[in-house]
């Protein structure tokens, strides 16, 4: 399958994607735990059906030492006992933040309060930006049918 668009070929899209990548590097350097970042990125991508991002974040998490069991259970995190309470709160926020059109009121107060119990304001800011950025990246990739499978860990760093 060929992609509909090469984001790096055009000056406008290329510049915008480079800024997105810079944002991603800023988040990597944030105090939000790296494992949480990869789990959230993976879950958002699963919900949105973004094969490129699922490929990327599964491989990045694996390269960082994440277990295959935890990666396999991200899609069913509510029933899986392998995630910390903080990770579960982040995954729940990620789901509600991704499914805003499905959740009549957006992110619920209880979900927000639960996340705020586990993360300080800087970490929450990074988490919200990560969720938002992943939703944008997923949409860009799904709309343009970016093919998945050949990502190499660290490829965009």
From TrEMBL:
Source species taxonomy: Bacteria, Bacillati, Actinomycetota, Actinomycetes, Kitasatosporales
Entry protein name: Carboxymuconolactone decarboxylase family protein
Transmembrane segments: none
Pfam families referenced in this protein's UniProt entry, alphabetically: CMD
Highest taxon above the source species: Bacteria
Residues in Carboxymuconolactone decarboxylase-like domain copies: 23-96
UniProt xrefs under SUPFAM superfamilies: AhpD-like
One example GO MF annotation: peroxiredoxin activity
């Amino acid at each position: 399958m060929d992609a509909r668009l090469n984001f790096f070929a055009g000056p406008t899209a290329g510049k915008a994607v480079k800024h997105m990548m810079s944002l991603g590097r800023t988040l990597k350097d944030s105090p939000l735990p790296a494992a949480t970042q990869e789990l959230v990125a993976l879950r958002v991508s699963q919900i949105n059906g973004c094969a490129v991002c699922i490929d990327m974040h599964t491989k990045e998490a694996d390269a960082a030492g994440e277990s295959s069991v935890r990666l396999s259970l991200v899609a069913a995190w509510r029933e899986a006992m392998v995630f910390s309470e903080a990770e579960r709160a982040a995954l729940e926020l990620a789901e509600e933040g991704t499914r805003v059109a499905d959740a009549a009121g957006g992110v619920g107060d209880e979900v927000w309060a639960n996340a705020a119990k586990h993360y300080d304001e800087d970490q929450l800011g990074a988490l919200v930006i990560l969720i938002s950025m992943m939703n944008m990246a997923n949409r860009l990739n799904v709309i343009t049918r970016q093919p998945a499978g050949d990502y190499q860990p660290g490829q965009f760093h």
